[in-house]
Amino acid sequence: MRHRKGFNHLGRTRSHRKAMLSNMASSLILHKRITTTIAKAKALRVYVEPLITKSKNDSTHSRRVVFSYLQDKIAVSELFREVSPKVADRPGGYTRILKIGNRLGDNADMCVIELVDYNENMLEAKTAKTKTTRRRRGGKKKVEGQEATVVSTDVKTEKAEKTDTTPDVEEKEPASDLAEEVKESAPEKVIEAASEEKSASDTEASVEVKEDKSSEETGESPEKK
User: Fold this and answer.
1) What is the SS3 assignment for 109?
2) Nearest-CA neighbor of 123 among 90, 99, 82?
3) Contact criterion met (CB below 8 Å) for 42 and 97
4) Which of 43, 48, 71, 106 could form a disulfide with 25 if both were Cys (CB 3.0 to 4.6 A apart)?
5) Pick from 53, 43, 152: which is nearest to 94 by CA?
6) Helix, strand or coil, per DSSP, at residue 11
7) In sequence order, what are the residues at sequence separation of 6 or more whose Cβ sits closer than 8 angstroms to the Cβ of residue 32?
8) pLDDT tens digits along 196-216
9) Quick check: 85 and 58 in contact, CB under 8 A?
10) 78 SS3 class
């Protein structure tokens, strides 16, 4: 019985399993992502991540140790030249497993295992993600500084409204000018009218005086007329 045996042999002998993982690790380093079963991907993750950590120290000893696992010069050079500088700031977790469903032939659980720092779509999605705010039941408490800013904005809006209404005032100015001209010209017209009334009354008085004189000369009374 294999109680509490967590090691997955993958149905292979030790040498076969080691050779398979070595080839899969080389393919992952060269192509940055491969498709396989979930069981093999989990075994590959345990196999390849210590090698990536080892590649951060670029020395002859590290290269020989990694080559003893991969047995591929091209994969070793790719790991030390391209992959290790890109994952230098990452403290582990260099791979990601994405499930893609079941295989048609034997219904095995399939997945894609890839290097995290080489998935450009997910990296762009993280950078473009905006910060979301949560709704709260209670109203937000205003800070004194915020109230001051609100008052200042209200003052600015009032000033802007005043500046907007200035053209209307300027347009109404000609009407006030006309009123002033009318006021200025009004006293002159009143004086002219008064002078005309005086002249008319003088003429009427002179006519009455002449009639009185003529009646006295003839000896007739004005009543008879």
Assistant:
1) strand
2) 90
3) yes
4) 48
5) 53
6) coil
7) 114, 115, 118
8) 666 766 666 666 656 665 555
9) no
10) helix
What are φ and ψ of residue 109, in 5° steps?
A: -70, 120
The low-confidence residues of the chain, meaning pLDDT below 50, are 166, 169-170, 172, 221-225
Contact (CB, 8 A) for 44 and 24:
yes
C-alpha R_g of the chain = 54
Task: Quote the CA–CA distance of 116 and 118 in Å, as a whole number.
Answer: 6
> Checking DSSP bridges between strand 33-37 and strand 109-115, what pairing results, if any?
antiparallel
Chain centroid offset of residue 186 CA: 65
Residue 103 is encoded by which pair of tokens? 């295989």
Question: Which one, of 58, 67, 70, lies nearest residue 28 by Cα?
Answer: 70
Q: What's the predicted TM-score (pTM) here?
A: 0.55
The DSSP result for 113-168, as a single string, is: EEEGGG-HHHHHHHHHPPPP----SSPPPPPHHHHHHHHHHHHHHHHHHHHHHHHH
Q: Tokens representing 26?
A: 């080389």
- Residue type at 86 in one-letter notation: K
Give the C-alpha separation, 34 to 4, whole Å: 30
In the block, residue with structure tokens 């008085």: 205
Whether 33 and 114 have beta carbons less than 8 Å apart is answered as: yes
What's residue 224's pLDDT?
45
